[in-house]
Amino acid sequence: MRYLNQTVKISFITAAGCLIAGSILAQATITVDAGKPGHAVPPTLWGIFFEDINLSADGGIYPELVRNRSFEDSDQPDYWKLSTATGSPGTMSVDSSRPFNALNRHSLRINADGPFTLENEGYWGMNLVKGDTYNFRTAVRVAEGFDGPLTVRVVGSTGNELAKGILSGLSRDWQYHSLALTATASDPRARLLFSASGKGTLFLDMISLMPQTSWKNHGLRVDLAEALDALHPSFMRFPGGNWVEGDDLAHMYHWKTTIGPIDARAPLWNTWGYNTTQGLGFHEYLQLCEDLGAEPVFCINTGLSLHDSVPLGQMGQWIQDALDAIEYANGPTNTVWGGLRAQNGHPAPFHLKYMEIGNENGGPDYVQRWPSLVNAIRAKYPDVQLIANTDLRNRPYPRHPEPDIVDEHYYESPESFMRRAEQYDTYSRRGPKIFVGEYAVTQKAGQGNLRAAVGEAAFMTGMERNSDVVMMASYAPLFVNVNHRAWNPDLISFDSSRWYGSPSYYVQQMFSGNRGDVTLPIIVDSGDVIEQPAAGCIGVGTWNTQAEFKDLKVTAPDGQVLFTSEFSRNIDGWRFLGGGNWTVQDGALRQTAQKENVRALAGDRSWTNYTLELKARKLGGREGFLILFHIQNDEDRVWWNIGGWNDTQNAVELDETMDAKAGHIETNRWYDIKVEVRGISIKCWLDGELIHEILKPRQATHRLYASATRDGQTGDVILKVVNAAHTPVNTEIKLLGVPHLTGAGQSIVLTSDSPWDENSLDEPAKVSPKAGTFHFTGGDLRRAYPGDSITVLRIGTK
Ligand code: AHR
Fold it and tell me: ∠ CA 417-422-423 to the nearest 5 degrees?
C-alpha cells in the first residue's frame, strides 16, 4: 500500500480532544483495485491470548465461587472469617497434620466450643441467580467429639438467605459431602456460611461452590466464555505470558500438574499476585479452544523463569514435558498421555498444531535451549509448527534451527502503533512467518479508551495488508477482574456478575468478523501527515516516592517570565492527577502518597520554547522526581525521570523514546533542576551539570489507515478505514476492477464524542460499534469518517 502527500501539518489537541489551533485538510482518496487480488488472508489471522493474569482464571472464567477453597494460599486461612457466639476469635487455623492428599497439604482446622459461623465471600462477592442451582462440595473430617451437623447457607449482601442445606454423618476420615443448592433470589454479592453448634474439632478442605450451568457444559463461566466466542477467535495462545515463566524455578508452569481431578492438581503462586488453583488446567484450555473453534497455541516453559534458569545439562524433563504435552493433546488413546486425555473425558485428539517455546525469554539462555527442544519435537512431531519468541530489546530470535513462526510483542502509545502500520510492508518474505502474540496500546490508554483502539486498529490494517507474512495476531491481556487490575489496560473487564469490552474489544471483533479471503491492493491519500507538536505545559510528579518542589519558574528565551509559583501564597493554576496527597509546607509543594504516576500540571499547552527551573527534594520512597514538559494531554508521559527504575537511572522519556543515564537521588537533599526546551531540542541539568541533550524524534502519523479484502462467498469488498485524526475526513473511495457493484453496502462504525472515552461496568456500551447501511451510484463512493473512528464497510457486488 502507498501513502501519498506527506507534508507536515501540526494540530494542537486539548485534553478533551478538541482542536484549538492549526489547520486540517479533511479530504482524502482511497483507491481499491478489486481486479488485482493479492495473497490469501490466513484463516488464523485474528485470535486471542489467554493468560492467567488479573484473576482471569480463578475469580474469572473458572467459576469457583469460593476463594482459597483448599487452604493452600498461605499458612493463614486467607479469605475465611470465623465468628463465634461468644465473640471469641482464634479458633481456626491452617493445619497440615493429616493432609487430604500429597498435593493438598493444608486444610482448615476449627476448634469448636459452641456455636460458630465460618464465612467466605469468594472474589468480592459470589453471584447467585434466582432459580439457578449450585453444586456445593466439601471434604470433611471430625475429631474430639464434634459430630455436626453442619448447616451450609448462602446469604445475600443484607444477610437474607438464598439457599440452605445440611451436612450430617460426618466421619473421622476425610470424606466428601455434596449438596445441590438452588437460589431463591439473585444477588451478585452473596457469601457462603457454615454454621454448627457442637464441641470438638472439625477439618475442612476443598470447599467448592460452582454454578451447575456452564458454557457448553465444560465448566466455564457462561457470560465470559460468550464474550470470547463473540470475538470469533481463530486461535488461542495460552496460558501466558509471564505466568508460564513464573517468578522462579519453584513457580514455573508445569502443565502435568494441572490435569485430572481438581483435588490432585498442584496449586501454584502466580506471578501476577495470587494463588492459582489450576482449576483451569491444560485440558480445560484445550477444551475451551475446541469449543471456540480456535486453534490451540500452547506456550511451554523452556526451563527459564523470570529470575532464574534450569542448568542446560538438566533440560531433559523440559523436553519430555513438551513431547508429552503434544501426546496428551494429539496422541492415540493407547499412548500414556493420550490415554489420560481419554480418561479425562476427551478420547478424540485436540489437534494441537502450534507450540510456542518459552515466553519473552531471549538472550543466550534461550538461544542455547532452543536447538535441543526444537530438534526433539521436530523429530517426533514434524507437523507441529514451532514458535520462537523474539525479544525486541535487540536480542534476536534463535535461528538454528530456524523457527516456523516468530512471535513479536508490542506495548506502546497510539501514535507508535499507527507508525507500525507500515512496518511489515518491508519485512522479509523469505524468513519465518510472524505472530504478533501480544500487543496493546498501554500509553495514554486510560483503562482502555477509544484512542488506544484507534492506534491498534491502524496497526491491524498493516497486519492484514501484510498477512502473507503476519499469520497470527492477538491482543493482550484478555481479561481483568476489576478488583485485581495487575495489568492495564485489558480487553474484557468483569466483576462477579457483569462484564464489558473496551473499545479495543470491539476493534478485535470488527476485524475478526469481517476478515475476507484475499487482500486487495489499496492506495490511501489522506493529505498531510500529522505531527505531535513539540509543545506543551509543564509539571512535577512522583512514582512510589514522597518529594517536594519549590522555587519553580518558567521563562521564555528572551527572559520573559511565563509562569512562577509561590506555593506558600496559593496553588492556583495547578491541576493534580493520579490521586496524590499534595500539600504546601514551608513554601514547597509536597507529595506524600505512596503511588505510581502522581502528577501536578501547570502552564500553557501552546508553549514551545521555554526554560523550566525548580528545586526538588526527595523525602522517602523508592525513586526520585518526574519533571514534566511538552504535555498536551493528561495521559502524556513526556518527562525527565530523575532517580527512576528504583533510583538507578535518570531518563528523558518521550513516549516510546528514551535517553537514559545511570543516576541516583539522595533523600533529604535539595537538587537544582533545569530543563530547557526549544521546540524539539531538549536539555536537562541537575545541580548545574548537563545530563541530557537530545532531539525529540519527528513522529508523524497519517490521518487515514486502511486495508481491503474480498469475501469469496458473498463477493463483498471489505474496507477497513481508521481515521487517526481527531477531526472528520471526507473521503472518496474509488473502486477499480468491480464491474458489478450493487450500489449498496453495510457499515460498522466505532467512535465516540472524545478519544479518551471508555466503557465501564455501568456504561458497557458507551463506545460500541453502530451498524448501518449505505447506498451509492456508479463506482464512486463518498463518505466522511468521524475523527478517531474505525469503520468497516462491506460493499456489495453482484
Ligand atoms: O500481557 C501481559 C504480559 O506482558 C505478559 O505476561 C508478558 O508476556 C508480557 O510482558
Answer: 80
Ligand 1 center from residue 494 Cα (angstroms): 20
CA of 289 to the centre of ligand 1 (A): 20
In short, whether 438's Cβ falls inside 6 Å of ligand 1 is yes
**Ligand 1 atom nearest to 272, measured from its CA:** 6
Buried b (16+ CB within 10 A) or exposed e, 264-301: ebebbbbbbebbbbbbbbbbbbbbbbbbbebbbbbbbb
Grid cell of 126 as nine digits: 459470589
State the pLDDT at residue 10.
Answer: 31
Whether residue 671 is predicted with pLDDT greater than 70 in this model: the reply is yes
pLDDT band of 479, cuts 50, 70, 90: very high
Mutational test site, ligand 1, from 244, 272, 302, 360, max ligand atoms within 8 Å of CB: 360
Closest C-alpha among 437, 448, 443, 450 to residue 485: 448
pLDDT band at 21 (very low <50, low <70, confident <90, very high): very low
The grid cell for 668 is 533529604
Q: What is the pLDDT of residues 583-618, one digit of tens each?
A: 999 999 999 999 989 999 999 999 999 999 999 999
Best mutation site among 48, 51, 361, 479 for ligand 1, i.e. most ligand atoms within 8 A of its Cβ? 51
At residue 155, the pLDDT reads: 98
Compute, in angstroms, the gap from residue 590 CA to the centroid of ligand 1. Answer: 35
pLDDT of 16 > 60? The answer is: no
The residues, ordered by sequence, that sit 6+ positions from 695 with a Cβ below 8 Å of its Cβ are 680, 681, 682
Given a contact cutoff of 8 angstroms between Cβ atoms, the answer to whether 450 and 752 are in contact is: yes
The residue among 280 and 8 whose pLDDT is bigger is 280
Q: Which of 360, 456, 676, 758 is catalytic?
A: 360
Distance, first Cα to last Cα, the chain: 26
Question: What are residue 782's DSSP bridge partners?
Answer: 732
pLDDT over 50 at 143, yes or no? yes
Per-residue pLDDT tens digits for 226-246 = 999 999 999 999 999 999 999
Q: Which of 20-34, 171-185, 283-297 has the lowest mean pLDDT?
A: 20-34
Q: How many CB atoms lie within 10 A of CB 160?
A: 11
Annotation says 64 is catalytic: no
Q: Whose CA is nearest to atom 9 of ligand 1?
A: 241
Closest C-alpha to 105, from 5, 239, 205, 242: 205
Residue 552 near residue 614 (C-beta atoms within 8 A): yes
Residue 738: pLDDT band (50, 70, 90) is: confident
Q: Does the beta carbon of 359 sit less than 6 angstroms from any atom of ligand 1?
A: yes
Name which residue sits closest to atom 8 of ligand 1, judged by CA.
241
For ligand 1, atom 7: residue with the closest CA: 241
Q: Give residues with Cβ within 8 angstroms of 716, minimum separation 6.
A: 516, 710, 745, 794, 795, 796, 797
Distance, CA of 182 to CA of 178 (rounded, Å)? 13
User: DSSP string of 360-382?
Assistant: S--HHHHHHHHHHHHHHHHHH-T
pLDDT at 255 over 90: yes
Among 409, 410, 436, 484, say which to mutate for ligand 1: greatest number of ligand atoms within 8 Å of CB: 409
The pLDDT value given to residue 395: 67
pLDDT at residue 343 is higher than 90: yes
Q: Phi, psi (5° rounding) for residue 9?
A: -125, 135
Ligand 1, atom nearest to 240 Cα = 6
Q: Does ligand 1 have an atom closer than 6 angstroms to the CB of 477? A: yes
How high is the pLDDT of residue 529?
Answer: 83
Residue 242 CA, ligand 1 centroid: distance in Å: 6
pLDDT at 87 exceeding the cut of 80:
no
Atom in ligand 1 nearest the alpha carbon of residue 411: 4
CB 540 within 8 A of CB 597: no
The ligand 1 atom at the shortest distance from the C-alpha of residue 476 is 1
Those residues whose C-beta lies under 8 Å from the C-beta of residue 536, and which sit 6 or more positions away, are: 605, 607, 629, 630, 631, 632, 636, 638
